[in-house]
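Backbone-to-sequence.
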């Protein structure tokens, strides 16, 4: 990042600090339903945002032969409920300016609601209907199935999607985190209405839900809204527990695909939120590849060598583990050079050569830009939900920058020596590359083994 952009980030930090302090006022609101709601009250605009998180209801908990089930349910929740069919339900949402959506990740199932304060009662009523009395009509199921199958077929021709699927399958070696979120052509085709009904009845449970709200709503109103939303929702405990992944290491494979530019995904095991060294790892990732033009990989791969337009790294944290991952898109004839540079920078940082200037630049940006994550009610509820999932405490918003600033140069260099493992990086390249290692044909004695 340029000096000018850093100054802008620091200016915005100062400008929005009052809002940040206000945002840090997180209240925990009990309700008759037995579910506490984390609330940030903000009366500046007549808008309320809600995020619900159903733990252990993400795509990694789908049956192996029904991959894509959670994804399909997420796309069915606004397709009619109670006495309102698909058209009537969505017309009601539109007339009341209510936004309702759902999505899934590996671990969890998320529902987002946004409404004007004046329409809040209706918004919460419709949300309760979608959860407890969804119509799930055959016509809607088949419509969503068709849309998902089209999306999967498109993904099969997209180099980024092909690379992500292959990398997950190689690194996670049969673990449910390697499941495809949308499912496969075969598994989606096999999903039946009874599977969807079972999902809604057993995995969208009051015992597994986290509630977050932000906006123009009082604590008493938030408690009443929580009860209204969760009314009739079953209280069932999900005892399922995923095992910890066993990661494969030190592989370089290529999947041939006729595209003008190759996609290279790389990475290895990392540490997740809650680990004592996470913030040092967070800063280290910024210096390595997460800091845009200030990162070493961007400087070497793009600025110095002109091999790629963009290269980035990030920490992908799961409930049962974490990965340090990266991506570079480059010319087909520049793949090997790009991979070599990635290895070199991992090795250089592993030696513990982070400089005081790099540490300062990373801290300045990570602390100065933090308020931009809190500048709307929608962002606030997402962060509140994240705080609950990671058990970060209600004071995290006001303390987070202190955690960043407390990291020393010695901390970052120490963590670099243990976290970064250039010899254990897994590279998956998708593109028209002729000189890199190819994936052996199925049945070959050199084919990579997959865990059962």
């Amino acid at each position: 990042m340029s000096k000018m952009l850093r100054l802008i980030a620091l200016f915005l930090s100062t400008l929005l600090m009052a809002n940040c302090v206000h945002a840090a006022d997180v209240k925990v609101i009990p309700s008759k339903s037995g579910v506490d709601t984390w609330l940030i009250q903000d009366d500046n605009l007549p808008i309320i945002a809600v995020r619900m998180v159903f733990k252990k209801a993400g795509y990694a908990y789908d049956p192996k032969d029904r991959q894509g089930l959670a994804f399909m349910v997420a796309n069915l929740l606004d397709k009619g409920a109670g006495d309102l069919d698909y058209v009537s339900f969505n017309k009601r949402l539109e007339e009341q300016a209510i936004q309702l959506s759902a999505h899934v990740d590996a671990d969890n199932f998320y529902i987002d609601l946004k409404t004007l304060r004046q329409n809040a009662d209706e918004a919460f009523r419709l949300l309760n209907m979608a959860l407890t009395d969804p119509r799930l009509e055959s016509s809607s199921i088949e419509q969503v199935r068709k849309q998902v199958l089209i999306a999967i077929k498109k993904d099969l021709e997209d180099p980024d999607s092909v690379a992500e699927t292959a990398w997950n399958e190689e690194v996670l070696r049969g673990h449910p985190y390697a499941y495809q979120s949308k499912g496969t052509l075969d598994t989606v085709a096999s999903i039946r209405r009874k599977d969807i009904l079972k999902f809604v009845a057993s995995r969208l449970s009051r015992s597994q839900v986290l509630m977050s709200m932000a906006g123009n709503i009082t604590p008493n109103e938030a408690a009443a809204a929580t009860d209204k939303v969760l009314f009739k929702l079953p209280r069932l405990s999900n005892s399922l527990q995923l095992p910890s992944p066993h990661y494969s290491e030190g592989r370089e494979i290529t999947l041939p695909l006729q595209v003008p530019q190759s996609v290279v995904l790389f990475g290895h095991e990392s540490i997740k939120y809650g680990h004592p060294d996470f913030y040092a790892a967070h800063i280290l990732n910024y210096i390595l590849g997460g800091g845009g033009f200030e990162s070493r990989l961007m400087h070497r791969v793009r600025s110095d060598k002109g091999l790629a337009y963009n290269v980035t790294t990030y920490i992908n944290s799961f409930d049962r583990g974490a990965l340090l991952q990266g991506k570079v898109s480059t010319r087909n004839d520049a793949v090997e050079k790009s991979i070599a540079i990635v290895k070199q920078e991992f090795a250089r940082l592993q030696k513990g050569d982070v400089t005081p200037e790099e540490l300062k630049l990373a801290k300045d940006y990570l602390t100065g830009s933090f308020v931009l994550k809190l500048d709307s009610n929608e962002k606030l509820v997402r962060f509140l939900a994240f705080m609950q999932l990671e058990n970060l405490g209600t004071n995290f918003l006001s303390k987070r920058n202190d955690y960043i600033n407390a990291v020393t140069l010695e901390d970052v260099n120490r963590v670099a020596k243990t976290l970064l493992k250039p010899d254990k990086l897994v590279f998956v390249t998708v593109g028209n590359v002729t000189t890199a290692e190819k994936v052996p044909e199925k049945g070959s004695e050199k084919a990579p083994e997959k865990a059962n």
